[in-house]
Design goal:
heterodimer; A: 280 residues; mainly alpha; B: mainly alpha; 93% helix
Chain lengths: 280, 157
């Protein structure tokens, strides 16, 4: 099993191979596959493919319920969907007290989408890459959340929304004030006023780090958890027949991680956005 | 593990599209259905509660109506009994009165009849007495001895 997809056959190569994205980039006017190391303009085709596919699965399956909702006689699938929707809705209502048409659907999308992407981790690590190798595709990483680009893209979107909501609810001055007037209020009168720029600079550094830490921690937490999980699956897959009980045990544990990470991503998004909308 | 703009941008666009779609076409209808059902359940519960209350009210009302009817029935029964007693008493009175009246009438008639018979009898007795007297007188009378009387009478004429 270890030799699958590689000419070399070493376990180091096996692991490397499993962690390599299928990439495409443009070099000197031509499309190049899998030779894009360090190319900033490349694209991880496998991550994008699975991410969009799972997003479509979410959108289509939930839309099928939304199209024919019935208040009187819900179908089983509708009951499942409503359970998820109510769960997200109550999480949002517990945290966010304003009115926003965006935050709850955003939370739902993040939760289900991230959950589905994480769930790909439970598919045995060689199945789909092996299949795609037979079809002539050399690399295939099927868990989009083990790709730092995917998690970063999501957290940066959330970050932009945080800034948008802060400016929308507190104005540009409020946003700047939040970055410079906390946590130490600069002195406004007397001799101390000389120290005010110093205090403001201090506040600004502190608050900027805090602000930038939000998307960074959001994406790296998800990425780290899923990447580590995936790596352990790969390591377990290396050990031959004894992998079966180990794989089962880790998969059972991973079900928890998959759900928890999706929930944490959603919950933190809601918390950040409600903090951004809150008036002091 | 490299950061590359293709994946970042692609995922961001995908996310915007999916969130927009969810916000527009998934979230509102599902939440509407949930809220509609919650409303219906609340209405149903309220209706059941008010129905229960009405039932209790109706039962109380029925009980009071039955009690009233019972009371009326017993009043009517009492009245009827009293009336019956009254009628019986009246009847007795009337009977007694009638009997007395008829008794009195009969007594009066009897007395009348008795008196009439007595009068008749008296008349007949006096006639018999006169007839007897006539017979006796006829034998006793002697024209000679009575001539003087007759003569005196004739003189006086």
């Amino acid at each position: 099993m270890a030799a699958e997809g590689g000419q070399d056959g070493g376990s180091g190569y096996y692991i490397q191979h499993h962690l390599q994205n299928l990439q495409v980039c443009r070099v000197e006017g031509e499309w190049v596959w899998n030779d894009c190391a360090g190319n900033f303009w490349a694209m991880n085709v496998d991550s994008m493919f699975w991410s969009v596919l799972l997003g479509l699965i979410f959108v289509i399956s939930f839309r099928s319920v939304a199209k024919k909702t019935s208040a009187d006689k819900p179908s089983r699938w509708q009951a499942v969907v409503e359970m998820i929707v109510e769960f997200v809705d109550s999480s949002v209502k517990d945290t966010f007290h304003g009115t926003s048409r965006l935050i709850a659907p955003l939370g739902l999308t993040i939760f289900v989408w991230v959950f589905l992407m994480n769930l790909m981790d439970l598919i045995p690590v060689d199945w789909i890459p092996g299949l795609s190798y037979l079809l002539g595709i050399e690399y295939m990483k099927i868990v989009p959340t083990t790709d730092v680009n995917i998690t970063f893209a999501m957290s940066i979107s959330v970050f932009l929304l945080i800034i948008f909501y802060t400016i929308k609810n507190k104005g540009v001055t409020g946003f700047i004030g939040e970055l410079t007037m906390h946590p130490i209020a600069p002195p406004t009168k007397g001799v101390g006023i000389i120290a005010a720029p110093l205090v403001i600079a201090f506040n600004f550094i502190l608050e900027s780090v805090a602000l930038l830490a939000k998307p960074l921690s959001l994406s790296l937490r998800l990425f780290g958890n899923m990447f580590a999980g995936e790596l352990i699956f790969i390591l377990i897959a290396l050990i031959g027949w004894f992998q079966l009980p180990l794989h089962f045990g880790w998969a059972v544990f991973h079900i928890l991680v998959v759900t928890l990470q999706a929930f944490i991503f959603m919950m933190l998004t809601i918390v950040y956005l409600s903090l951004a909308s809150e008036k002091h | 593990m490299d950061i590359n703009i293709g994946t970042l941008g692609g995922q961001t666009i995908a996310m915007i599209v999916f969130v927009w779609f969810c916000m527009k076409y998934i979230w509102p209808p599902i939440l509407n259905a949930i809220e509609e059902r919650q409303e219906k359940i609340a209405e149903g519960l309220a209706a059941a509660e008010s129905g229960q209350e009405k039932l209790v009210e109706a039962e109380a009302e029925a009980e009071s109506i039955i009690a009233e009817a019972k009371r009326q029935a017993s009043t009517i029964l009492d009245q009827a009994n009293a009336r019956a007693n009254e009628i019986v008493a009246d009847g007795k009175n009337d009977g007694v009165k009638e009997r007395e009246r008829q008794l009195t009438a009969a007594k009066a008639e009897i007395e009348q009849e008795t008196n009439r018979a007595r009068e008749e009898l008296r008349g007949q007795v006096s006639a018999i007495a006169i007839a007897g007297a006539q017979k006796i007188l006829e034998r006793e009378i002697d024209d000679a001895s009575h001539q003087d009387i007759l003569g005196k009478l004739a003189k006086q004429l």
